[in-house]
Design brief:
single chain; alpha/beta; Rossmann fold; Helicase, Ruva Protein, domain 3; Cobalt-precorrin-4 Transmethylase, domain 1; 4 domains; five-stranded parallel β-sheet; 18 helices; 35% helix
Length: 479
C-alpha cells in the first residue's frame, strides 16, 4: 500500500487552490462541501466556477499566489497546469507547513485526491495510488449505481443511536452483531421504504431486548455458500455480502486464496478441506463444528468450492443443521462443470453434437461406485465427471468395455477458470496417457462427448484474465 487512506477534518480551515481550470473547480467544490474556507488564485476562472462563486466561504484572487498567501494554509492544491506555478506552489506551501497536492504531478503530492462517491455522511474514496486514475473513476461509476442516495440518509438516522447503543451494549462483539442485524434487517428495510417512524420504533424495541449489556436475540446462523470454480469474478453478490458478515469461516481445499481473501478480515479461519483418503476433518465432524459454533451465537460461513448441492455434501450438512434447529441460508454458485465448460471452450450442449448432459462423480459414499452405463452411453449426450482423475484409466476403460467408441472425444480441464487453467483433449483411448504426460493434478473436471471437438474453435485465452484479477478483487471488496 503506497498511501495511508485517511479522512481529514478541514472544517473552517484555510485551503488554497492555484488555478482556474476544471480540475481546480473540482478541488474547490470538494473543499467547500467539507466546510473549508477556500481561496482560489488565477487571473481568469473557467465556467465550472460559476455555481461556486456565490458561496461566502470562497474568495477569488485574480493573480498568481505568492509566499505570504500560504501563511495559515492547511492544504494547497495546484491545478494551474503550469510547471513554474506548480514548482512555486510546492516550495511555498511546504515552507508554510501545508499539505500539497498538484494534479498529475506525483513529485509534488503529499497525498492523492481520490475519486469520491458522496452519500453524506457516507463517503467512499477510491484511488489507484496515482498510477491509473481512469480505473478509479470507472470503479466509482460502478459503485455509484450500487449505493442509492438513501443510504446516506440511513447512515445519518442510525448515527443518532450510536451513543445509546454503545452505552447499552458494552461487549464489542455483541455490539457489532447488533449493528449488523439493524443495518441488514427490518429496521433498515423500513427506513429505506420511507417509514422512518416505524424504523425508529422497531430499533427501540430491539434495544429493549438488551439486558446486562448483551442482546437477548440469538445471532447464531450458518451460511452455506458456494465459492464457484475458482475465479473470484464468478462469485454472487449475496456470497460476497455473507463472506463479509461472518464471524468464522470453514473452508474447503478447493477455495482459492483470492476468494478466501475476500472473507471478512477479522473472521476466524478453519481449514476443513478434504483430499481423497486424507481428510483434514471428517464430514460428521465438520457438521458438528458448524452446529457448535452456531450455538455459541456465531455467524458461520461454510465456504465450499463449486456449488454446495453439486457433489458438495451440502444436503448432508443442512440435514444436520435442520435436525438441531440451526438457522441457515444457502447461496448457490456456478458449479465446476459450468465454469470448466465455459472457460475451456467446450459447450456442454450443442444442437449439432449434444442435446443432453449428465453429471456424475467418480467417488461414492464408501469409495465404491455403481454407474448406470445404459444411461451414460446414450447418443448425443455429454458426460461430465467430477473427482475422476484418480480413477481415470478405469473410468475410460469401462466406457469402452460397455460399448463406447474408443475414439469418443474427451477432455480434462485442470484448475478451471483460474489463470493457471490447462485443457488436455484426446479420446477415451488416449486421455489417461495424455493426462499423465502433462502431469495433470486435482482439481480437474473430465468432459466426455462430441462437444469436445469444438474446443479448438471455441477456446479463448483465459490466462488474460489473470491480469485483471487484482482490479476485480479491489472492486469486490468495495461492494
Amino acid at each position: 500500500m503506497d498511501f495511508l487512506p485517511i479522512f481529514l477534518n478541514i472544517k473552517n480551515n484555510k485551503i488554497l487552490v492555484d488555478g482556474g481550470t476544471m480540475v481546480a473547480a473540482r478541488r474547490v467544490q470538494r473543499a467547500l462541501q467539507a466546510g473549508a474556507n477556500v481561496s482560489v488564485f488565477d487571473p481568469e476562472l473557467s465556467d465550472e466556477f460559476l455555481p461556486l462563486l456565490d458561496d461566502d466561504r470562497l474568495t477569488h484572487v485574480a493573480r498568481v499566489p505568492v509566499a505570504s498567501d500560504y501563511i495559515g494554509v492547511k492544504i494547497a492544491f495546484g491545478a494551474s497546469e503550469n510547471d513554474g506555478r506548480d514548482a512555486a506552489l510546492f516550495k511555498n506551501a511546504k515552507a508554510a507547513g501545508a499539505l500539497v497536492n498538484v494534479a498529475d504531478v506525483a513529485k509534488y503530492c503529499d497525498f492523492i485526491a481520490p475519486s469520491v462517491v458522496d452519500r453524506d455522511p457516507l463517503i467512499i474514496a477510491i484511488t489507484s495510488s496515482g498510477k491509473t486514475p481512469v480505473i478509479a473513476r470507472i470503479l466509482r461509476a460502478r459503485i455509484e449505481t450500487l449505493i442509492p442516495p438513501s443510504y446516506g440518509h440511513l447512515a445519518s438516522f442510525l448515527g443518532g443511536f450510536r451513543d445509546k447503543i454503545a452505552k447499552k451494549i458494552n461487549n464489542l462483539s455483541s455490539r457489532r452483531h447488533f449493528w449488523e442485524n439493524i443495518i441488514e434487517g427490518e429496521v433498515s428495510d423500513r427506513f429505506l421504504s420511507g417509514d422512518e417512524n416505524g424504523a425508529h420504533s422497531l430499533l427501540n424495541e430491539k434495544l429493549d431486548l438488551v439486558k446486562n449489556g448483551n442482546t437477548l436475540e440469538k445471532i447464531g446462523e450458518v451460511y452455506l455458500v458456494g465459492a464457484g470454480p475458482g475465479d473470484p469474478d464468478l462469485l454472487t453478490f449475496r456470497a460476497l455480502r455473507l463472506m463479509q458478515r461472518c464471524d468464522v469461516v470453514l473452508y474447503d481445499r478447493l477455495v482459492s486464496d483470492d476468494i478466501l481473501n475476500l472473507v471478512r478480515r477479522d473472521a476466524e479461519r478453519i481449514n476443513v478441506g478434504k483430499l481423497p483418503k486424507n481428510h483434514t476433518m471428517q464430514q460428521e465432524d465438520i457438521s458438528q463444528l458448524m452446529i457448535d459454533l452456531a450455538k455459541q451465537g456465531k455467524r458461520v460461513l461454510r465456504l465450499k468450492g463449486g456449488d454446495p448441492f453439486m457433489f458438495g455434501r451440502g444436503g448432508e450438512e443442512i440435514q444436520m443443521l435442520s435436525a438441531n434447529n440451526i438457522s441457515f441460508q444457502i447461496v448457490p454458485a456456478i458449479t465446476a462443470a459450468m465454469g470448466a465448460s465455459a472457460y475451456g471452450g467446450i459447450p456442454l450442449t450443442h444442437r449439432d453434437h449434444a442435446q443432453s448432459c449428465v453429471f456424475i462423480t467418480a467417488h461414492g459414499k464408501d469409495g465404491a461406485l455403481e454407474l448406470d452405463w445404459k444411461a451414460l452411453l446414450r447418443p448425443s449426450q455429454t458426460v461430465v465427471v467430477y473427482m475422476g482423475l484418480s480413477n481415470l484409466k478405469k473410468l475410460t476403460d469401462e466406457f469402452v468395455e460397455h460399448g463406447a467408441d474408443p475414439k469418443l472425444p474427451a477432455a480434462i480441464i485442470e484448475n478451471a477458470t483460474r489463470p493457471e487453467q490447462r485443457v488436455i483433449t484426446g479420446n477415451l483411448s488416449d486421455l489417461n496417457k495424455k493426462a499423465k504426460a502433462a502431469n495433470i493434478k486435482s482439481p480437474s473436471i473430465i468432459i466426455i462427448g462430441d462437444v469436445v471437438k469444438l474446443h479448438s474453435q471455441l477456446k479463448w485465452n483465459v490466462e488474460k484474465k489473470g491480469d485483471s484479477h487484482k482490479m476485480s478483487l479491489q472492486a469486490q471488496k468495495l461492494l
